[in-house]
Amino acid sequence: GRGRGRGRGRGGKADRDRGGRSGSEGSRGRRRGAPARRMDADEAIERALALATTLGGDGGGDDVDMRLVGQLLADCKDARTEAASEAAWSLYQAAVVAGTAAEFNIRQYNFALGAVQRGAAGEERVRTVWDALVAAAVPPNAVTLSQLAHGLCKGAKDVPSTLAALRECASRGAAVDAYVLNILLNACLRELLNAGPDASSDVKAVVKESALAVWEAGKGIHNERTLTSTIKVLADAGDAVGAVRTFRAAWEDETPLDVDALATALRIFAVTEPAAVLIGVMNMAQEQRGLEPNTMCANIVLAACSKDGEFSTALTLWRHMLERRTPPPDKASLASVILACGRAGRVDLALDAFEEGKNKGVECDTVTVNVLLEACAKSDAPPGEALGILMDAIESRIPVDALTIASLLTAYYSSQTPTNLANTPGALDQAFAIVELGRFMSVEPTPRVTNALLRVCIAAGDLPRASRTFEETVATQRDDQPPAVDERSIRVLMDGYAAAGDLAGAARVLRDAECLGVEFGDGTAAALIRACIDAGDVESAMRAYESCVNHRGVGPTTRMVNALLVGLARSGSWREAIRLVSDDVIGSETCEADDETVRLFSSAFEIGGEEEQAEVAKQMGMWLTGSDDALIAHLLERDSDEES
Fold first, then answer.
1. What is the phi-psi region of residue 173: left when phi exceeds 0, alpha when psi lies from -120 to 50, beta otherwise?
2. Distance separating alpha carbons of residues 361 and 355, to the nearest angstrom
3. What are the tens digits of pLDDT across the range 408-440?
C-alpha cells in the first residue's frame, strides 16, 4: 500500500499528521498509517538543503508542497543542533523567495519558529519568522507561544522583550499559560547555573528582576511549576526573604501547590526561618491544601531541626514517620535525626534512633554510620560504643570509607582524658590498629584520618610517636596515591608541641615538613609565630618569622606580620616594629598593611613609653593603609587638641 495524496505531490493521510511529505517520498516502503521514520540530524540537514536548492532552481516551488517544507523544518527542529538550524533557515528563506511560504498555515510557521532558533542569529531569525506570520494574518496558537518563548528568551535580560512578544501574540488570539511562563523562568535558572556560585551581584539582580516580572505578568494563571521556579530563582539569586514572601503571597492567592513546590519552599524557609516555622508550613499544607508531604519534605524539616538543636522535635517527627509510614523514612531521615541528637550531645538518643530504624527496616549506609560515629565523638560515650558501631557496620556489609575511620578515631580520643589515654595499656596501639583495619578493607588513609591519628598520639602525650607517624606516612606514600597528609597535619603536630611548651619541637615540625616536601603557607607560619608569642617568647617568634621568610619562601604576608607585631606590641619593642614594617611592609607586593597592623604598630610605641613616636607611628600606619582621609582627620584632630 502506497498512500494516495489528493493532488500532485501531496502527502497521504498518515503523512499529513506530521506536516506532510510528497506522496512519492513520504509513503514509499511504508504501510498506510505506519509512523514516519525519525530522521537523524545529518539526514535532516541533507534533505533540507537539497529542498532549498530545488526551491531556488528553475520553476521554484511549483512542484513542492508546503507540507513537505514544514516536515523538513520539523525534522531540523527535532535535530536540536546549530547546523540543523542553519539548514532550516536556508530552507525557510528559499521557501519565502519561491512563494511556497505564502501558503504556510500555523503548523508550518510553528515548525519554522522551532527550527531556526539555535545559534547566535537564532533570536533575529525567530523574529523574522514571527513578523512574517503576523503579516500573513495567520492566527497563532499555544505552540506558537512556546516556540516564541524558547526562541527569544535565552537569558534573564531577554525576559522583558520576550514578554512583550508574548503579549502581542496573545492579542492575536493565543492564550498565554503557565507552561510558557515557566520557559522564561527556566532561562533565568539556567543563567544562574551557568554563572555558578561566584555569580556577580549584577547578574543576580537582573535575574531576580526578570523572575519577578514574569511572576507579576502571570498573576491569575500561575501553577505549581511556575511557583516552584519563581521561588527557586529568587533564592538562588540570594533573595531568600523575597522567595519566602512570594510563596506566602501565592498561598494567600490559592495558587496551585504540589509536593515539589512544598519541598522547594521548605528548603528556602530553612535558610531564614526556625524549624518550628517549617513544621507549621508542612502542617498547613496537609490541613488546608490536602497535600501529603513526601519523604523529602520531612527530611528538610528534620535537617532544620538538626541545625536548630531541636532534637526532641526531630525524634517526634522521626517516630511518626516510622509508625504511620506517611511519609516513609529513608536513610537520609535516619541520618538527620542522628545528627540532631548528636549535636545536642545526646548520643543515647542517637543510638536509640539508629536501633529503631534498623528494626523497621530503614536502610543504613556509610553516611548513617559516619554520622552516628560523629555523634559519639561529641559525647562522653565510651570508646567501645564507637568501635561496636563500626563492627556492626562491617557485619551488616555496610561499606566504610576514610571518614568512617577518621570519625571512629575522633570518637576514640575525644571520649577519654589524656591521662586515661596515656595510662591505659594498649590504648594508643588500638588507634593504630583501627587505621590498619581500614587498610584491610581497602580504605587508605586520607589527611583527615592521619590528622585524627596524630591527635590521638598528642592526646596520649606521645609526641615522638606522632612525629614518627607523620614522617612515615609521608615517606611511604606512593606516587599513584592521593596525599595522606596536608597542611593541617603540620598544624596539628605543631600545635601539639607548642601546647607541651616545646617551641623548638614546633619549629622542627616545619623544618621536617619542608624536607619531606609537604607544602605549607602563611597560615601555618603565622600559627607558629603566635604559639611563640602566646608562650611569651618573642625572640623565638622573630626567629620563626625570619626562618619562614628568608629560608622557606613563605611570606611576608599581612597575617604573618600582624602575628609578630602582637608580640612586639606586648613587649614594647618599637625598634623591632619599625624594622619589621620598614623591611617587609613598605613597598611590599605580598604584604599590605591593614587597620590591625596600624593598631599594633602604634601600640608597640605606646607600651614602650614613646608617646611622641607612637603619634608618628599612627600617622605612618594610616599612610601605609592608604587611609588619606583618616590621616587628614587625625592631623586636624591633633591640631585642635593642641590649640585647646
1. left
2. 10
3. 888 877 766 666 666 666 778 888 998 998 888
